[in-house]
Amino acid sequence: MPLLQSIVHRLEPSAEGDRLKLHAAPQAHPSSAVMDDLMAAVSDAYNTKPKGWGRFVEGEGASPFSGWLAAYLAGDQDFSQLSHEIGERLCRVLEERLAVGGYLIFGHARQGETETLSLALVHQRHGIGIDDSHTAVPAAQLNLGQLTLAARINLTQWQNAAPEAQYVSFLKDRGGKKLAEAMAELLGMEEGIDAPSETRTLLKAFSDYVEQEDFDDAASREKTDALVGYADEQLRRGEPITLEELSGLVDEQKPKAFFDHIRNADYGLAEEIPPDKRTLNQFRRFTGRAGGVSISFDSHLLGSSIEYDEAQDRLIIKKVPTQLRDQLKRR
Q1: Percent of the chain beyond pLDDT 70?
Q2: What DSSP letter does each residue of 206-231 carry, written as one string?
Q3: What pTM does this model have?
Q4: Does 301 have pLDDT greater than 90?
């Protein structure tokens, strides 16, 4: 992800913990491999976390954020000015909820034909390192594992004004509600797609499709692996699931079949869906074999069409697969 511009500021809480002060860098960060690696690490951490998605609110009362961004892209102000204005406003909105300090990192990057602006508040932790003389010494390190306040704007989608495009995302973990609220206010956005709900609906549509087509276990497992593999790759890249692209991967012989199934059954899915990591992690298969019995099913079916009675150690299948039911009837 080649960086076009980057800068790092510092947010410092007051002694009382109720105010924040921005210590701004005087100029953009010089190009360096280390900064490239840092922004790539921030991006990797961001991609795997729960997010809210939406777009800028336009009109009266809107946040100045989108105006600052437009001025920067038009060349009316430089990257340092843009980040300084955003940092000052972030201090104010954080003070109203939770005055938390750290290093505020900005990056304007280009990947292929897509440009993005990312911002993240990163905390520093103290550790121990070894110097050139093989001596243990104090060493500070950025704690990317605890990333709780960050956002990314797809500048290309925003400038193209794509209908229904969800070009703004921000971290929205259940443990960081106040931080998420502060970021949403800073960005001046309205939320659109509910990533967990949309991902659940997509997985439901996939399960319905596999059942409707009556694939055998091997084919069903292969298609499940294709879906999960593609979704995991999109998560890693920080990009949405595209239904048409996914459909081609699910069934290469009939690349439009799954897409047509979604449209014909009217699941109400957008053509691009931001994947939700937690929901995808639940979409795995339970398997077991013992005493001549072999059982395999997608984990998300547990609690709906399949139930486990722990007290009686019984597995209850509410909807028997068509092929198995026909065999049982013939028997």
Answers
A1: 95
A2: HHHHHHHHT--HHHHHHHHHHHHHHH
A3: 0.71
A4: no
